[in-house]
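pinned: reference chain
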Amino acid sequence: MAVRHFFLILLVVTTWAFNNVAVKWGLGEVPPLFLTMMRFVVVAIILVPFTRVTRAQLRYLLPLAFTFGFMHFSLLFLGLKFTDAGTGAIVVQLGTPFAMILAMIFLGDKLSLVQMLGIAISLSGVVVLAGSPTIPSWWVLCLLLCSAVGWAVSNLIVKKSPAIKPLTMTGWLSFLAIPVVGLSSFVMESGQLASLAHASWRGWFAILYSAICSSIVAYSLWYGLLRTYNVNLIMPYSLLTPVLSVIMGVLVLGDSMNVFKVAGSLLVIVGTAIAVINLRNLRMHARLPKLKRLR
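pinned: its structure tokens
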């Protein structure tokens, strides 16, 4: 891998990790569902005017607007309201093993014994995390787990959908998610416009950072790297995101650390790594540069 591409990967995962810190800042001033809706509004304003979708693509974008827009993002922001940035990022990381399980059930994908072991280890991490004081109640954990399920279900829908350009999908998902998230905010929250009017730079930074840096810029760089390198070489780096989120939460937000959080985080990350990292493919890609030099 070219050195500049390695640093681009680090930039992307760092951007995603800091998004949890930015969201925590925003949640201190703006209600979570309304914050989610404003994020989608900004993304839609920037991307929708320059992208087009077909009727066939729209059939898949509509359910994605619910599973990814509402289930994943709205429930994640709600969960982050009541827990710290690192804990939220760790639990939502379970979206990856959840997606593997759903693909096995509904798409007929096969899982090896090593992958099943990794999934079991990552799920055991949630049991440990449940004892952490950073998760004040069982329903907060359920919110984050449902957010992870929303991400997993969205992956299945994307697998079955026709080809859609990444930024087109991001823009139209955001646009289509605005009504359902906006209605949820209207029913469950109050004082949204007043909170936005009185928000400091932190509230506005959360909206703009989450929309522009985390969604548009980071995903554009990520998909560009996926076009250059094999997915098996790139995807393991995404496991750095929750690790960096925990570190940033401690350094920037003053989040606490305890034995439950440390042990649970390690189990989730190590288990997910075992489940998704194909060592055989990684060794193959590591040999490719040597083979090219020999030629």
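why pinned: Residues 172 and 236 are 28 Å apart (CA to CA). Residues 284-295 have pLDDT under 50 and may be disordered.
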